[in-house]
Amino acid sequence: MRFHPVCSLLGALCLFVVALPSSADITVGRRAYSDKDFAKAFSEFTESANQGGALAKRYLASMYFLGQGTAKDEAHGSKLAHECAEAGDGQCLLMYATSNLVGSGVPVNYAEARLWARRAIASADAEVRAPAGLILAQAYLRDPANAYLVDGKPNMEKYDALAHRTVAQRAEQVEALDALAASAASGFVPARQLLSAVLFEQSGTGTAEKIISLLTGIKDLPATYQRFLTISQQVAQLGPTRAAPKLVIDCMPVAALTAASHASRARTNRPPECKDFKVLKFLGPTPLDTVTWLPLKQPLIANSYPLTGTWSEDWSVTACGVVSTVKINFDVDGMGGANWASELE
Question: Are both 128 and 240 inside the same structural domain?
């Protein structure tokens, strides 16, 4: 059997997708499972597990999670997954990491999820490394200790504390993002989707293009990621920018007001309710000044997370029939994004 935890990127659901085992010492159980005789398969795997068979414990754990041949019992499934994970089984390491991530049979424990995901990545089973990288990233990103939202509302004291962490204090963040990027680079679709969501808010040259490469070609792309793809394509068509796609969207109202103010001074006969506004193109960013980068190593995410620095960009825009060049000044915020202000060139 192979177990690939596929954890929802927007929720806490996890399915264990089961394929057939190939080990000779559990041939009878395998055959029964293939025939969907789950009661017999459960009996055979139980007998082998009782004799200390780690592989049988892996199969049994999945059957307990899925309720196949026995009543669904996530707590017992998690216990068995832990036992065979301790024996070094890569699939069990992955299964137990997922249990801790989503609270399946055990309380949610992000530190434990990271611990077992690390061991899965380091295991000899190459097939578990991509999903384990995703789990490692999710365990970091979901951990309330790493988020500034409290009860759904921004907590600015916590935001400031997170934004002002030193590079040394961000070791787990670097580990998580690099693991996610490595998983995405292997082609693992859930990781490609999650990395696109991360990059959508991170400022670095070529961010929009990276998102396009990550999401293009994924069948039945969910609406959220289709939106990321569409916006990134629109941003990329405007020219070079260091601003993340979300940051570009956030800057639009300020750029519009600046351009409209210029238009009102340039034209005396403009319509009183003129609301037309459009970015024509980006004229290119200036180099980053006094920049410090989060030291990410994976190519898909390297140089995508500035911790300090400033830069500016000229945007050619039209408002009320008047073309203007609006300068946007960016000041990195320590959270992957930037604060901004606009002025006319």
Answer: no
